[in-house]
Specification:
InterPro entries: Cep78, LRR_dom_sf
Number of strands: 4
Shape: globular
Strand content: 5-15%
Oligomer: single chain
Radius of gyration: 15 Å
Length: 133
């Protein structure tokens, strides 16, 4: 019998302003847990790497992942726009938010399509790990 772990208490992540890397690799949070995690870190620009390797994610993970990437991209675009209105030249490399997603060893299938659509216009994500072994 497989163990399904859904993260219910994410208060530590929500309260942290210094946490930069979240690794849930091998935790089998599945798609339901991903929904909770993505909602918790949407507004956390300090988190730059989310490691979800071998977490039991399926094609249903595409929309929550795409929503997370899109939400953070819009927030960064708005911050850059506000800075440009003040006559500043925003340094896009210094803006916070996710830079790397590790999604290897999951059965993502069509989820990658949803993610690819938002990544096409995202200027901040630098690496995505999608190996399947």
């Amino acid at each position: 019998m497989e163990f399904y772990f859904i993260v219910k208490n994410l208060q530590g992540i929500v309260d942290s302003d210094s946490l930069q890397h979240i690794s849930l690799a091998g935790s089998k949070i599945c798609d339901e847990g991903l929904i909770n995690i993505s909602e918790a870190i949407k507004m956390k620009p300090n988190i730059v790497w989310l490691d979800l390797r071998n977490c039991g994610l399926t094609c249903s993970a595409g929309k929550p992942l795409a929503s997370l990437v899109h939400f953070q991209a819009v927030a960064r675009e708005n911050a850059a726009w506000k800075a440009s209105l003040r006559g500043e030249t925003p340094n896009l490399d210094l803006m916070g938010g996710l830079r790397r997603l590790s999604l290897s060893a999951n059965h993502l299938s069509d989820a990658v399509r949803h993610l690819a659509v938002v990544l096409y216009e995202d200027r901040w994500i630098k690496a995505i790990d999608l190996q399947y072994w």
